[in-house]
């Protein structure tokens, strides 16, 4: 399971990943990082120390909402959920990401 | 920032512990869940936990970043900064005290000016919808400030016949009364006054229209001010009877403190208009003809002021008795009336900006002083700041901390500044009333305007502005340090603080120079004004204006029979500035002259035959009026020298005929105005011109004199008395007050009247001299402390120089030379600015009068004030210079 240090995520991509992960369901912080790791097949490992500041920042921006619920461990955990403006923001960032990755892909192939 | 953000921040502020606990809980849960995962994968609990923690990284760091993300750090930092600041003040209390005192002085002075400004222009009276209230005026000419009052009958007609207002009130001011022997100034109002304004009494009730019926009893409503002054704030006064001018009046109400009756100063009480005759003690004249000073209406909703003006103009043009003699419809003007001085903002700016500028200069100098002090302290705090920076504080963070310190000092100063402003206002008032001529002092009722929330806001804003102006540069400067050297204790010697210091000194010297020059200019002008001969005999003469025509005969009787009165004359107008007494004079040239007939505008003055002798106005040629010539119908005139020259430049004026045509009919409506009959007059004498053109020359006159008799309504009396005029005035008043109490403040000695001009200049002089003195003291102390500090800084260097053979003299010159340049620059800037402002002032319209009274470019004043500054600056610089020169080189070199 050990791997080489993943290069830092592109600035801003962590926000995008969090928003996308929360698109369909509400999750707590650990689950978010696990999910990103699973889906990316362990390619993307979220720096857990920077996950929570990002969550708090997004909460302050009003893109995600938090509520305390009983977790699978049987104790209270903070669950995050996408708000309506979060959905809008996700759409914007996703299309922007699409544009960027296509562009980078083209450069990598053709340049 | 959005709503979400705000709510979260609020929550973090209101319940910080809970938010902290939740953060801890959230992070702890993460670690536990991760541990759980590892345990599920077969690791031992201890190992699982270690791995989870390792994966997470520093928990406190993450928590800190979360706190940063939620922006609560600002508050946290602020509390820490404030605590730190107080610790700094405790360490150096003297510096903090100096700063607070300096800034408090400056802020207090500016706040004192603002208190007046606020009272005059900003503080709207506490009435219902003040924006709807407008005064109706009839200006005497387009753009003229003066206007013709309406009569009571015209007010009633306006109220009845026009519909632009929901209702209209009328007021009469300027009545002198006495309550239990003390002067009390009322405003007489129509019965609907309080209802139209929509104000309730604080005690008792206000007037109703029924109170203004002639049959109603005598009732008065006290203002808060009058209630305190005459009744000592007694809450049980309602229903009590008080003697006003000896006539008992029932007190029916007391108004709240914030109601001033649509003026900037509150009267002592209000009385119904129906009492006018009784309070004035007039017993003739029809009620309807009584002029009312103010007619104020509440605009009907939906009617614009322009529409209202148009509507009123139509109404006015339909009334023949409102037309002027030229058969033009009388112009109508609406002025907003909300209890402030309604004035064009440009005028307000022109009046208030010099005051704010002059007083603000003190604040500016104070800020410069403090900035210098902080610059110096910044150098000594370099080590502390260096350590903070090397421990990881960002430069921004340190600057914020330094500015927080400055802001705390400034806010403390603002609080003290408020006290300073009150003390200044009270002190100035006391000084003004004690130095005023006694006759004037008893007539004016000055009070210090109270401060309200606007003054508070102004002070806080002032504190913030001062913080930026004295704290920003030093904070930027202090944080520009080389870390390694600073933490090692080596003070870096940047050239910049020196430059900033020099600039500050130059600003201070410039401002001080400007203020001192102003003070010197006004001093010289006040001297000059005091020395100018008034042109009439003032040593033993009195003026008695008569406003109460029905009592004229009685007053005349008292005056002529009084033992101390030597001679009596009549005059109108008393001062030319008080009335528009001018006419067109056309010289009737001799037949043989080929020149066209000359027409000039001349002032005219009605005087009785005794006038010339009584006031020592010499008749240069011809004769004065004889005892028989006591009306203009006599067809004779005495012409003043310059008027004679203007009409007959070549020939002899005596015996010539002049046609006078007075055509300024608007003034006719003033009850006391006398109009020169338009006809031909024979010149019988030439009189000396009186006074110069100076602004404050009360009696200056040149023009044509027309004969009149003391019996003529409107004329004032001039008396020559035996012995001291002040004593005679009191003796005379003793008798006259029984005839007409309103004469109380009207009878003046000519000496006082002539001295008023010089007195006004003296006041301005004292204000500027105090400001200039303060500026100088602050500047000098600033210069002194900066130089002393520099000497201390350079002790080692000076020691080396002396060891290398520099003489005491060299060292003294070295230190002195540091201050020469900034002081020189400041002097030139200050002098230049003063001259520039003077030239600007002279170029403004209406400034020619100022120019003739105040020598704004007086070279003596400039030279004297600059010399004072140079001398004091040299003294301030010489002490540190001498100290430097006396340093023992061996001792200084051995120091470390």
Short recap of the structure:
With 111 residues, chain A is α+β, with helices and mostly antiparallel strands.
Report the structural category of chain B: alpha+beta
Main sheet record of chain B = 10 strands, mixed
Average residue pLDDT of chain B: 81
Total helices of chain A: the number is 4
Distance between the first and last residues' Cα of chain B: 55 Å
Number of domains of chain A: 1
What is the CA-atom radius of gyration of chain B, in angstroms? 37 Å
How much helicity do the residues of chain A have? 40-55%
Q: How many structural domains are formed by the residues of chain B?
A: 4
Description:
The complex is a heterodimer of chains A (111) and B (896). With 111 residues, chain A is an alpha+beta fold. Chain A has one domain (13-110): Arc Repressor Mutant, subunit A, CATH 1.10.10.10. Helix content of chain A is 55%, strand content 14%. Chain A is built from four helices and three strands, in the order αβααββα. In chain A, strands 1-3-2 form a three-stranded antiparallel beta sheet. The N and C termini of chain A lie far apart (34 Å). With 896 residues, chain B is α+β, with helices and mostly antiparallel strands. Chain B has four domains: 3-71, no CATH class; 130-339, no CATH class; 346-531 and 756-894, no CATH class; 565-721, no CATH class. Chain B is 53% helix and 14% strand. Chain B has 28 helices and 25 strands. In chain B, strand 9 (241-244) and strand 10 (247-254) form a beta hairpin. The longest helix of chain B is centred in the last third of the chain and has 44 residues, at 750-793. Chain B is globular. The chains are: A alpha+beta (111), B alpha+beta (896). Chain A binds chain B through residues 28-31, 34, 47-50, 52-54, 56-57, 59-62, 68, 71, 73, 75-78, and chain B through 2-5, 8-9, 22, 25-27, 29-30, 32-34, 36-37, 55-58, 61-63, 65-66, 68-71.
């Amino acid at each position: 399971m050990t791997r080489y240090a993943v290069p830092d995520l592109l600035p801003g991509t962590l926000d995008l990943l969090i928003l996308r992960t929360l698109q369909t369901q509400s999750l707590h912080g650990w689950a978010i990082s696990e999910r990103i790791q699973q889906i990316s097949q362990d390619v993307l490992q979220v720096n857990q120390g920077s996950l929570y500041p990002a969550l708090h920042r997004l909460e302050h921006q009003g893109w995600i909402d938090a509520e305390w619920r009983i977790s699978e461990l049987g104790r209270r955990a903070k669950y995050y959920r996408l708000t309506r403006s979060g959905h809008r923001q996700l759409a914007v960032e996703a299309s922007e990401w699409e544009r960027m990755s296509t562009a980078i892909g083209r450069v990598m192939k053709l340049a | 920032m959005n709503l979400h953000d705000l709510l979260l921040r609020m929550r973090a502020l209101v319940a910080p512990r809970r938010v902290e606990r939740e953060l801890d809980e959230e992070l702890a849960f993460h670690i536990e869940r991760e541990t759980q995962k590892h345990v599920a994968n077969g690791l031992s609990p201890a190992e699982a936990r270690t791995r989870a923690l390792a994966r997470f990284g520093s928990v406190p760091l993450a928590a800190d970043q979360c706190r940063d993300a939620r922006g609560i750090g600002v508050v946290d930092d602020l509390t820490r900064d404030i605590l730190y600041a107080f610790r700094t003040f405790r360490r150096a209390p003297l510096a903090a005290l100096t700063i607070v005192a300096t800034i408090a002085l400056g802020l207090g002075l500016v706040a004192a000016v603002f208190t007046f400004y606020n009272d005059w222009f900003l503080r709207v009276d506490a009435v219902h919808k003040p924006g709807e209230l407008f005064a109706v005026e009839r200006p005497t000419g387009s753009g003229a400030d003066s206007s013709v009052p309406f009569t009571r009958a015209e007010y009633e007609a306006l109220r009845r016949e026009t519909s632009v207002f929901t209702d209209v009130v009328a007021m009469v001011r300027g009545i002198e009364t006495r309550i239990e022997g003390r002067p009390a100034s009322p405003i007489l109002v129509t019965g609907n006054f309080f209802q139209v304004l929509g104000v309730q009494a604080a005690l008792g009730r206000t007037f109703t229209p029924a109170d203004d019926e002639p049959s109603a009893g005598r009732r008065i409503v006290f203002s808060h001010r009058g209630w305190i002054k005459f009744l000592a704030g007694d809450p049980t006064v309602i229903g009590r009877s008080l003697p006003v001018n000896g006539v008992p009046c029932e007190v029916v109400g007391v108004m709240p403190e914030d109601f001033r009756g649509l003026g900037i100063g509150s009267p002592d009480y209000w009385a119904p208009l129906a009492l006018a005759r009784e309070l004035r003690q007039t017993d003739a004249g029809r009620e309807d003809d009584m002029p009312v000073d103010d007619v104020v209406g509440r605009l009907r909703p939906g009617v614009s002021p322009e529409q209202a003006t148009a509507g009123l103009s139509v109404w006015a043009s339909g009334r023949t008795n409102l037309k002027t003699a030229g058969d033009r419809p009388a112009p109508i003007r609406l002025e907003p009336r909300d209890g402030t001085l309604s004035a064009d903002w440009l005028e307000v700016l022109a009046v208030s900006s010099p005051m704010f500028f002059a007083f603000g200069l003190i604040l500016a100098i104070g800020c410069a002083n403090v900035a210098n002090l902080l610059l110096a302290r910044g150098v000594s705090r370099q080590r502390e700041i260096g350590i903070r920076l090397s421990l990881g504080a960002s430069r921004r963070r340190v600057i914020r901390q330094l500015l927080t310190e400055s802001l705390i000092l400034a806010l403390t100063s603002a609080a003290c500044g408020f006290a300073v402003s009150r003390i200044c206002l009270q002190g100035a008032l006391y000084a003004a009333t004690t130095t005023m001529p006694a006759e004037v002092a008893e007539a004016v009722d000055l009070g210090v305007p109270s401060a309200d929330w606007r003054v508070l806001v102004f002070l806080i804003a002032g504190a913030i502005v001062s913080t930026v102006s004295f704290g920003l540069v030093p904070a930027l400067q202090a944080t520009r340090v080389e870390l390694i050297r600073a933490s090692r204790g080596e003070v870096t010697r940047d050239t910049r603080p020196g430059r900033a210091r020099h600039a500050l000194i130059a600003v201070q010297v410039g401002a001080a120079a400007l203020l001192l020059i102003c003070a010197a200019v006004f001093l010289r002008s006040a001297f000059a004004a005091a020395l100018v001969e008034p042109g009439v005999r003032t040593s033993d003469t009195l003026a008695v204006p008569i406003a109460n025509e029905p009592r004229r005969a009685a007053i005349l009787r008292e005056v002529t029979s009084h033992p101390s009165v030597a001679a009596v004359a009549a005059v109108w107008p008393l001062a030319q500035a008080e009335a528009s007494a001018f006419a067109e004079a056309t010289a009737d040239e001799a037949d043989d002259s080929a020149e066209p007939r000359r027409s000039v505008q001349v002032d005219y003055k009605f005087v009785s035959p005794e006038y010339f002798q009584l006031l020592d106005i010499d008749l240069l040629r011809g004769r004065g009026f004889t005892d028989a010539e006591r009306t203009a119908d006599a067809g004779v005139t005495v012409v003043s020298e310059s008027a004679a020259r203007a009409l007959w430049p070549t020939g002899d004026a005596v015996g010539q005929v002049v046609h006078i045509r007075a055509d300024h009919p608007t003034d006719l409506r003033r009850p006391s105005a006398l109009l020169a009959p338009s006809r031909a007059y024979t010149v019988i004498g030439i009189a000396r011109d009186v006074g110069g053109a100076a602004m404050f020359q009360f009696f200056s006159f040149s023009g044509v004199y027309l004969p009149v008799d003391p019996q003529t309504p409107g004329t004032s009396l001039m008396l020559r008395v035996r012995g001291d005029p002040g004593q005679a005035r009191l003796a005379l008043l003793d008798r006259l007050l029984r005839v007409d109490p309103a004469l109380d403040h009207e009878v003046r000695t000519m000496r006082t009247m002539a001295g008023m001009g010089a007195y006004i200049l003296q006041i301005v002089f004292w204000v500027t001299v105090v400001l200039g003195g303060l500026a100088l003291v602050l500047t000098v102390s600033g210069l002194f402390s900066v130089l002393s500090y520099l000497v201390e800084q350079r002790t080692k260097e000076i020691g080396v120089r002396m060891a290398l053979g520099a003489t005491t003299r060299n060292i003294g010159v070295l230190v002195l030379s540091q201050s020469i340049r900034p002081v020189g620059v400041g002097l030139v800037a200050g002098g230049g600015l003063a001259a520039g402002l003077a030239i600007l002032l002279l170029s403004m319209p209406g400034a020619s009068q100022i120019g003739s009274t105040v020598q704004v470019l007086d070279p003596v004043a400039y030279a004297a004030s600059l010399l004072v500054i140079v001398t004091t600056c040299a003294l301030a610089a010489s002490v540190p210079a001498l100290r430097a020169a006396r340093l023992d080189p061996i001792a200084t070199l051995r120091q470390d």
